[in-house]
Amino acid sequence: MVGMLTRREWWGVWLALLVGNLCFAVWAGGEPKGPALVKGSKALADSQHGEVQKLIPDRMLPTSVFFAPPLEIVDGDTVKFEHRGLCRLIGIDAPEVGDAAGGQPVGEQATTALRALLPLKEPVLVLVWGRDRYRRMLCLILAADGYPVNLTLVESGMAYVYLAEGFPLYSALVEAQQRAQADRRGVWWLPKRELPWHYRVRMRGR
Question: What confidence score (pLDDT) does residue 98 get?
């Protein structure tokens, strides 16, 4: 259980197992190559999301791992890397920013929080689980303390759990969201809120 270990200890154990399995798979020639989604990925569709996206690979291991500095923090759940393109944080969805309607409450705060977690020009470890329909990499990124920023953003109320079923950290993300909701952090402090995927659907219909 997460509560039995510190955040760093728990993540260190999971990462060691993950990277160890990944290295073995690469050594054995079992890892797929190229940017395409992993064979066996499942389409996750939900009427509440209003979107059909092929997102979460039905497997434990990432398709690739790299170490590089962020080039730009685009918004609360998207990071750009030089020579690699856009990275969408997997399993989460932050409030929208910078559209014609002015974005959503907490959207700018989420972007600021991600910038604080991932200073530009400081290399970070990025684990990639294929790409979404917009060809963005689906990533889990480790901050300087070794903890995944995906979890930190959800735990601080800066993002919601989103299309994460089947992802290895699904249970941890759900627990992080429950803690944020109980403590009324970030978006959970708002008296009224609109989920980002509902907001996007509404904006497309205008």
Answer: 80
